[in-house]
Amino acid sequence: MKKIFSLILAVSMAISVSSVFGEEIIFSDVSVGSPYYESVADLFISDIIHGYPDGTFKADKQMTRAEAAKVIMLTVGGGNPQGLSIAKGERTTGFTDVETTHWVYDYIGGATDLQIVSGNGDGTFLPDENVTYGEVVKMIVCAMGYEVMAQSRGMSFPVGYAQAAANLGVTEGISFVLEDFATRGNVAKLIHTALDLPIMEQVESGSFVEYIIMDGKNDVELRTLRIMRR
User: Fold this and answer.
1) What does each C-alpha distance from 216 to 7, 36, 117, 170, 221 come to in angstroms?
2) CA distance 180 to 94
3) In 51-183, which ranges are continuous DSSP H helix?
4) What is this structure's pTM?
5) Which tens digits make up the pLDDT trace of 144-197?
6) How many beta carbons lie within 10 A of that of residue 123, not counting itself?
7) At CA 137, angle to CA 102 and CA 82, rounded to 5?
8) Where do the domains of the chain lie?
9) Which residues pair with 198 in a beta bridge?
10) Contact indicator for 153, 203 with CB cutoff of 8 Å
């Protein structure tokens, strides 16, 4: 029954999103014919991304590490900005350059708790620096539960994560250089694709740990980031 419900939910979400598409302009600088339109419209409707007060989205603008952490946590946690039930002020991010007054303090803290981000190894996060495609891809792969797959490839960051993302289909149709700074439009496309791909979950039984791809096959429930947000 859970499997059937999940399939119905996934289909109904796709229908509800597609029904909003068409000729509606959500942002003045993202036309219906834009390669970013479907992704941006979907994430806007899903309350994952937002534009600027002047009604623009600025798809070609580079995204900061703080903005990326917020978008990923909204993808994972839905309307809960923390992703976890921890009240503001009761968690620490562990980063010396992210104070409680920072506008994305809770998002970075939540992403740290979920092991989606880990900082720079020197105690800093550099929230206002631009985020690279490699860093965004790692965040998405970790949010989907596939970090163990990325690390099992025996390659250093970010190559292992990039290969895992490619195998999952996250980066299909998007060309970029891992070391380049990520743009808002391409990040929207990556997350839009990742939303409907099966996630991986860890199941523990005593000392035994098993990783299961929740793809809706062989009596396994279908679970995606979009489904889990509801």
Assistant:
1) 8, 29, 28, 18, 5
2) 26
3) 65-77, 105-113, 133-143, 147-151, 159-168
4) 0.85
5) 999 999 988 777 799 999 999 999 999 999 999 999 999 999 999 999 999 999
6) 10
7) 35
8) 2-63+130-229
9) 224
10) no
